[in-house]
Amino acid sequence: MDDSTIVDLFLERDEAAIGAVKEKYGAALRSVAMRILGDAGAAEECEFDAYLEAWNRIPPHEPRTYLFAFLARIARASALNRAKALGREKRSAVLVELTEELESVLPSPCDTAGEAEAAELSRLLNGFLKKLGDEKRAVFVQRYWYALSVKEIAERYSMSEGKVKSVLFRTRNELKKYLKKEGFIL
Question: 62 in the Ramachandran plot: left (φ > 0), alpha (ψ -120 to 50) or beta?
């Protein structure tokens, strides 16, 4: 079933929408959460959180052309919140590692001004990602959105781990230059 048809089911408040989403994207949503949490049961709960949140957000949103991204963002946020609440040492180490890699580039929205800047930063990040080549964008997103390890990315894209590290390092530097050029204060 295509995404537009699934969104129509949500808009009609037809419970078959949940089954269609689960069949089409369930495994991928669990995978997003699993990479963050490292716990299959918690990842499954995040998957179901995504279904419930989608039910509540559609309408007014109609993510016909970006349904998976819409659902994955919800599942990822749920997993990050759950990881924060659980304070799990093993998976927290991965989150800390990813945060440390980007901390010299991206500020932390710890205050009201930081929260206001977050929307602008999001817009700039999207613009930056659109300008990247397919390979660089894929590696960057796999690392910092899906939390894949360097080894997993290397295997997925048939690269050496050194090349993946190099692509990530250069892309972070490009991002820093791009943000400065756009007037974003780091």
Answer: beta
What pLDDT score was predicted for residue 91? 46
Which residues of the chain are modeled with pLDDT < 50? 89-93, 96, 108-114
Residue entry with tokens 């390979």: 135
Residues of the chain with CATH 1.10.10.10: 98-181
How many Cβ atoms sit within 10 Å of the Cβ of residue 42?
20
Q: Which two tokens stand for residue 138?
A: 């894929």
Reported pTM: 0.64
Give the C-alpha distances (Å, rounded to integers) separating 12 from 2, 39, 109, 113, 157: 16, 34, 38, 40, 40
pLDDT tens, residue by residue, 24-70? 999 999 998 988 888 899 999 999 999 999 999 998 888 888 898 88
What is the topology classification, in CATH, of domain 98-181? Arc Repressor Mutant, subunit A (1.10.10)
What's the token pair of residue 51?
A: 């279904």
Alpha-carbon gap, residue 79 to 107, rounded angstroms: 21
